[in-house]
Here is the input.
Amino acid sequence: MKNINGLRRKNIMKLVNKIQLVIDRSENSDNATSQAMKMAKKLNAEVSSLYVINTHMHQTPNVIEAMVRTGKKHLETLKDLASNLGVNMPTSKVLVGGPTHDILKETNANHSDFLIMGAGENSPKGSVQAKLIRKAKSNLMLVRDNLDDQDLKKILLLTNDTELEKAPLFAANLSKEYGAELTACHVVDVEEGLIKERVVYLPEAAGRSGNMSQRGLGENVTLSPTLIHKLKDDLTKQGYKVTDTVAEIAKNVGVDTKSVVLNGKPAEEIIRFARENDFDLIVMEHTKRGRLSQLISGSVPEKVARNVPCSVLMVNSAS
Here is the structure.
C-alpha cells in the first residue's frame, strides 16, 4: 500500500515511446504484430521489429537459410504496413540464435520500453515467453488470439502485489486511451501458510496460560472457525482498501473502475475469473522477487500468463 498511495498525486503518464516487436512462427505472432502496429499508431510510438529464428529448435543450415529468407520477406512486408499506417520503424532485422538473451540484448540496444510478442501455445514454463517474464526490464505484452483484430474493451488489473508502483496508473491510462472498461481485482488467500493451524513455539510450551493446558513443543493447534472467519473478513476489507485506492487513481485519470475481491489461491482465482468474464487484457505488476521467494511460492504472474485465455501485460516496476 505504501507505494500505491504515492500514485494518487499522479494522473497522465506516457505509456510507451519505443515498441520492440518480436516475430516468430507461433500461432499468435500475427496477432502480436497487429496489436503492436495499432498501439504504435494510437499512442504515437515507434516500432522496431525482430524476426526470431530459434537455433535451439532449428539447427539444419539449409532450414535456417530458408527461414532467414522468409524472415527478410516478412519484414519487408511489415515495413510497408508501418509506412502505410504512418508508424516509424527505425530498425528491422532477422535474429538467428538463442532467443531470450538476444531478444533482451536487442531490446536494450534499441532503448525500447515496451516488448510485444505472441503468447505461444500456453506459454509453458521453459518457453521464451516465460523467461522474458522473469528477465525483461521493459514492459512486456504477450498477445493471444482473443484480441485478433479488435481493440481493448475490457481490462483486468491485478492488485495482489504488495509492491504495486506503476501498474494501477498504467492500466488507468491504457483504459482511457482505448475507452476500455477497467476492473481492479484483489484475491484473499485465507488458507495460505499457518492459517487453519499454527505451530506451538518454545515460550508457549514452557508454561501455562490461564486455564489452558500446556502445549507440546511443535504441536499443531487448530484455529477456531470464528478466528478464521474474522481473519477472512479483515483480509477482505484490506483487499477492498487496495482496490478503492486503485479506483481513486483511475478516477483522477478520468476512468471509472469496478472493484472485485475474490477468495482462494491467487493464480487459480484470477484464471477462473478471467475465463468467466471475457477480459481482453490482464495487467500485472512485475517486481524482481528473490529467487528463494519464487522457489517457495512460485510466481503468480507467470502462472496467470501461462494459463489465461486472454492477452497479458506485465508492467515492470523497474522500467
Q: What stands out?
A: Residues 2-189+231-316 form a domain with the Rossmann fold fold (CATH 3.40.50.12370). Residues 193-197, 290-297 have pLDDT under 50 and may be disordered. The two ends are 20 Å apart (CA to CA). The longest strand covers residues 46-54.
